[in-house]
Design goal:
Elements (H helix, E strand, L loop, with lengths): L5 H10 L7 E10 L15 E10 L4 E9 L12 E3 L8 H12 L2 E3 L27 E2 L2 E2 L2
Parallel strand pairs: 4-5
Antiparallel strand pairs: 1-2, 2-3, 6-7
């Protein structure tokens, strides 16, 4: 689904009597960077990131998964994070899920009430769940293994 549609679609799925998806089970970010050459034959996507939403309806006892596909970098400029509208106004539970996807995968959620890191320190550079992320050898004088 297009990023610009996610808030309207989410609101519709939450409020429409036929669906009543009143619970956001999970929201996560996934990075689809082309794998190493041995696995490249089975990779059928352009490199991109996705926001994946898992929803449930307690009333109707059904589930659905929504996906928003984003470019790896905004405007194809490396380092410019892709953006997706926040659904925190639709489901309050999205607040921390979106912060985690921002922190670890580097997806900026526009309209989020408090978009900042949730797991990594504020001065951490990069987003550790990106496939091309290189872990630093040192952080504030502490050497890694």
């Amino acid at each position: 689904m297009a990023p610009g549609s996610i808030v309207a679609v989410s609101t519709f799925l939450r409020d429409d009597e036929r669906f009543l998806f009143d619970h956001l089970n999970n929201l996560c970010g996934s990075d689809y960077l082309q794998p190493d050459p041995k696995k490249a034959k089975s990779f059928e996507h352009e490199p991109h990131v996705e926001v994946v939403y898992h929803l449930s309806s307690f009333t109707h006892k059904h589930r659905i998964t929504l996906k928003v596909k984003l470019p790896r970098w905004a405007d194809d400029v490396e380092g410019q994070l892709p953006a997706c509208p926040s659904v925190a106004s639709v489901w309050a539970a999205a607040d921390w899920h979106e912060r985690e996807a921002y922190d670890l995968v580097g997806i900026r959620f526009t309209g989020h009430p408090n978009l900042r890191r949730i797991l990594c320190p504020e001065d951490w550079e990069g987003h550790p769940l990106r496939k091309d992320y290189e872990f630093p050898l040192e952080y504030h004088g502490i050497r890694g293994k």
